[in-house]
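pipeline/complex-builder :: batch 7 item 3
reading input block
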Amino acid sequence: MSNISKFADKWVLVIDDMEGMRSQLRMSLTNSGFAKLHIVANIREALERMANNRYDVILCDYSLGDSTDGQQFLEHLRTNDLISRNTIFVMITAEQAYEKVVAASECAPDDYLLKPFTASQFNARLEKLLERQAYFASIDKAADAKDWTRVIAECDRALPTKNKYFLELCKTKAAALMHSNRPQEAANLYREMLALRPIGWARLGLARALALLGQKDEAQQIAREILTDSPQFMAAYDFLGGQLASSGEKNAALDVLQKAREVSPGTMNRIRELSTLAVSAGQPELAESVMRQALQKHKYSPVRQVNDYAILSKALTSQGKADEALSVVADARKDFRDEHSQIVLATSESVAHRAAGNDELAEAALARAMAGDINALPAETVTAIADACFALGKEDEANKLLRHAIQNNPEDETIKSKVHDVLTAAGKEITEADAMIEDSTQEIIRINNEGVRKAESGQFDEAAELLSEAADRLPNNLQIVGNAALVIALHLVKSGNNPKLLAQCLRYRDLLVKKSPDYPKITQIDSQLRLLQSQKTGQ
Amino acid sequence: MNDLYAAVIHDVKNQLAELALRLGERADAQQEMLIAMNAARRLSEMLLVIRQKSELLNVNPDSVDTADFLMILAAEYRELFPALVIDIETEHTPAFAFFDDALVRLALSNALHNACRSARTRVRLAAREQDKMLVLEVADDGPGFPDSMLENKANTPASASNRGTGLGLYLARKIAELHKLEGRCGRIELSNDGGAVFRMFLP
């Protein structure tokens, strides 16, 4: 009976495709004292429920019929931030699938339950998981808000007790350090953990940190060693493949991801990575077969993205199968009707029409792709539109789009390598592509420095104008947006209140907070705004 | 272990689970339901190990809270053997230790199952650190291990006895040995001290 009070206020979602299992779980959860239960048969229903309700516990069967499995669903939830870190996700699995589930440790559930299990087994586990949930509540909340500074502070506060959560706290802190772009400290922390025990995830963590520190060879070496010791460690394949791809070794990267596929067919993220790579490495047949197979398996499943169809369409176009590409685009239109999807698909359509020699249709599709606000699009889509522009000989538009993609995402190496791919596919020399990327990067650094210099020499008006123009054009470039907000704030403190400028400053500040709540410049901006406030009240 | 055997075990396991389900619907057979369920679960766990060639068995040690680990294990067997007292001694347990949770759980639940079947009134679960090894101990107050089992040092499944088929012990030994650190590896020790004492040493 003691469980009743403990579990009664917890919201639980159960996902199982078998009717018998659903009623068994309902009975046993009700007997254990759970009162707030939703039980669904598939992922679609689960997502509908989750859109309207915050669950404390999600119990999901690994095998959900022929379609998307529990692991792929979990990965979908985590990559798209659809569940809080604090939500307990328990995977229920039969012994045949157990190995597969446990191996996918990149995106691990909080616990596994091996079928069959009794109510008391389940309760004992859940009690421990709820205890952990309560302990990590504030840390997880900060992580959900991407407030990494607070995550680190909270971990630091808890670590000295060296309690049973010690390793998990270290792991959480190291991940937060990586998010805050402090790879050196993260590497040190991973090394401390590894001194206790050579655990797989800590080794991979160290490899990631070293890669960020530019020690790419060592990072790859560690990943290779992990795979020698545990060939089932899927995350190590993905990391190694990504490393090789970003250093231009596309075929080696493909080999690694292919090897991963032999061990486990994999989740959509890996399929995407592999087929994108295959297209750009000149192996569109491979991309086609891998992506077709995946989309067939995930028919009707919400883990598909519109970009998956764009990749497939590209793979087909590259093989001269423009008609098939167009029918893939038409298929995708049935399921993806939002504005962004229309742009992505219009881009694919344009490229396919052009390949088939229907330039008029290609122009019309491209015009539709380019009609919207470029800042509302992910950089990946922007580079795809540039690719379509090149195909139609619109070099100027293409270059403008690529410069924008780079300048709006100055820290993103993946975007740079995508831009590189588009340029070389359009027939540019590698040196030319490198020079263009470098020039775009330098241009925005110059604008930033110029703005800061003007502000330092008291020319606030000009500085604010220069940086605001850049910030409006590149709202994802945090350095520019941050400096724009700061310069306007300084300007206001100096020359008195101006409602229009203040609104602009606050808009930039809010943008920063939204994208990166612990961005260091926010404190500086806020202290200027407080100063301004006190001036106002002083008047 | 060949695929046919695994398929047979799998089939029996499913039938046991089905039996448990049907017993669960009857108000007068809860204890029988638990027995069937537990048998199915144990087969499930063994299949995990048996399905793979033993040299491919993957050990993934991670940080485990030993006290919680023993508590969950005890909860399962208290339900199954309500007449027994199952004590947990964790005063000397480190806050966290490193081992493969799933595999060690399998090894220990086999030992615990045998202990519960042989015990008169009590079973004791304990964890402590000794010579840089984690010691997990399952002791009962029954008649103790037969001499033949104490003497069986070979890594082969022992012959059937009143303490089960010996397969569980064989697997436990394998699982312990697969835990390796800096040249040391895990082991199992059996002894008699007021009953049977099963000890798993993990580096």
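note: The interface with chain A takes residues 10, 17, 20-21, 24, 34, 37-38, 40-41, 44-45, 47-48, 51-52, 58, 60-63, 65, 67-68, 71-72, 75-76, 78-79, 95-96, 98, 102, 181 of chain B (CB under 8 Å).
queue -> next item
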